[in-house]
Amino acid sequence: MRADPARQVIHAVDVHAAGEPGRVLFASGLGIRGSTMAERLRYCENHLDGLRSLVLHEPRGYPGLCSPLIVPPADPSCDFGMIVMEQGGFRPMSGSNLICAVTVLIETGAVDVSEPLTTLRADTAAGVVTVRAEVSGGRATSVTFDNVPAFVHALDAPLDVPEYGRIPVDIVFGGQFYVQAQATHIGVELRPGNAKAIIRAASALRQAAAESFDVSHPLHPEIDEIGLPMIHGPAVTPGTDGRNAVVLPNGAVDLGDPRTWTGTLDRSPCGTGTSGRIAAKHARSELAVGDRFVHESMLGTTFLAEVKEETTVAGIPGIIPSITGRGWITGIHDLIVEADDPFPCGYTVGDLWGQDADGAVG
Questions:
Q1: Residue 94 among the catalytic residues
Q2: Which domain of life does this protein belong to (predicted)?
Q3: Which CATH number applies to 8-121+328-332: 3.40.140.10, 3.10.310.10, 3.40.50.720, 3.30.1300.10?
Q4: What pLDDT band is residue 353 in, cutting at 50, 70 and 90?
């Protein structure tokens, strides 16, 4: 390709972790500022939202895509930092995205690799996460991370959701705040062919929870929103302990307008959501320290979760969740933005992106 100094080129490595796609970027040259990961995340929100929409939106992205941004760590004891770009904004932590990032770091040689086990420390806006990757022939064949402490904000709290009635929900933290509810209480069946009904219900569930519960992490007060919903149910596949569906928002939700109850299904079993779920099960005495829980996605892929130890977060009882999964590299790309491209930050259209995406640019 002819060299053009006006052309912007972004190098990316695409991965999927248990089915959930992640487009891994290295943040060299972006000038991200901040002395903590929380400050760096806030900088990204204020200055790099155009990059997020460029990478995730059409014509270079698609609704199911996320992107872990690998940045220098703020904590000098860590090997790398990670800020997560999702369709709904920048996020402090994501398990599937961490697995994608670690897979790329190891398989591209961006970090020192030891076989059969490589240990790394990841700096995130939710805290430091220790990662252990099994490596064979230069490939990461399994990735386990000890997540930030997970805890319960509320158990079986009644929540009124338009069209779905009063539902008992759990409000939990596993790297992000979640509202979690049983599929039977909402009246949806957790199967891939039922995706539209699941997305509709989960989007309304999340918005209702966001409007009804005030949340704030006691150590990271900037994490103060219920960002994601999980609908969960009993095991479907032999050898698993439960199935779940997490829905990632892709636009504003208005409880008064059901046309806006849209989003995208997480293809993986969801690492932070699974962390929150086993925290709730531990709080109910359904899981003890050392117990394992195999969580299944809508695709039938699994994450292995374990209650590694008990802990407290500013006096709140919690656990250290351990999550194991795997990532697979699917492509290496140079994303190009020509100087005269009419869509330098991408666009969204309502056929894929929801009711409010009326040809929106960026």
A1: yes
A2: Bacteria
A3: 3.10.310.10
A4: confident
